[in-house]
Amino acid sequence: MKIAIGLPTGVPETPGRLLVDWARRAEQAGFSSLGTIGRIVFDSHEELVALAAAAAVTERIGLATTVMVAPVREPVLLAKQAATLDAISRGRLVLGLGVGWRDDDFRATGADYHGRGAALDRLVGSLRRVWRGEAPRPGVDPVGPPPEREGGPEILLGGSAPAALRRAGRLGDGYLAMPVGADDVAQAGDAVRKAREEAGVTGPFRLIGTAYCALGGTDAEADANMARYYAFGGPDFVTQMQGGVLRSEEAVRQRIRDLDSVGVDEVFLWPAVNDLDQIDRLAAARG
């Protein structure tokens, strides 16, 4: 199983330049990929811009949105942005997409919150058409540039609702699970594989795990950051998310072992704090 690390785009008060330093050090530490968490209405950095900066200072490490709220984005422009980043990074981009569930992101951008599931279905189709070199609409020329990889970047779909699991099976190249225990990840993965089989989808498929981490006595800072990010869900939800943060090297190692045992292909260790030493601490925990 590959071990990836989050880029702290969603940690509040993260200096933009720190993302560049983080990307360099994460590659030096041998992590497989960098993953972003995205929102619109928050003190967070935009994911594709952050990953483009990371691409410019790295050579090997993968670049992934884990996940991006997709229905608030214009599909053809997103296809062009992703193809550009894929070309810049020489095929290292993985596009993780989800419907989102904070209505403020939709109100801020004027997107339809209640139609977001159908919008994501259409968006994935648009991405693939543009990346194949087809015209996005009748009477319009194709949109470039061509992505580095034939057919475009790998698309991972997230979400935990039954509709999201079915969508991941029908449309995704992989499923990106919530930061939950291995048994829940395995159950969700089985549901996605069943949906793929029912839809007649063949080809490679990846199961991706995630976990929040905060090592080295950063509990108070991590709890404050989680509270700010997840405040929209209410106090009980904040407490739940804080309780899921892995706070010791042994807890990280155990989660890695558990996810590996249920067939996860790659796990993203998302930082709950933005201290650069988290990279070295997580590398030590990874083994």
What does this molecule look like?
With 287 residues, the chain is α/β, with parallel strands linked by helices. The chain has one domain (2-286): Alpha-Beta Barrel (TIM Barrel), CATH 3.20.20. The protein contains eleven helices and eight strands. The chain has an eight-stranded parallel β-barrel with strand order 1-2-3-4-5-6-7-8, surrounded by seven helices. Helix 7 (182-199) links the parallel strand 6 and strand 7 (206-213). The model has no long low-confidence stretch (mean pLDDT 97).
First and last CA, distance: 12 Å
Order of helices and strands: EHEHEHEHHEHEHEHHHEH
Strand content: 15-25%
If helices are DSSP runs of H or I spanning 4 or more residues, what is the number of helices? 11
Shape: globular
- Strands, count: 8
- Helix fraction, binned, reads 40-55%
Question: What is the CATH architecture term?
Answer: Alpha-Beta Barrel
Looking at CATH, which topology would you report? TIM Barrel
Mean of all residue-level pLDDT scores: 97
Q: Which segments are poorly predicted (pLDDT under 50) over 5 or more consecutive residues?
A: none
Structural class category = alpha/beta
Trace the largest sheet across and list its strands.
1-2-3-4-5-6-7-8
CATH superfamily: Luciferase-like domain
CATH classification, class level:
Alpha Beta
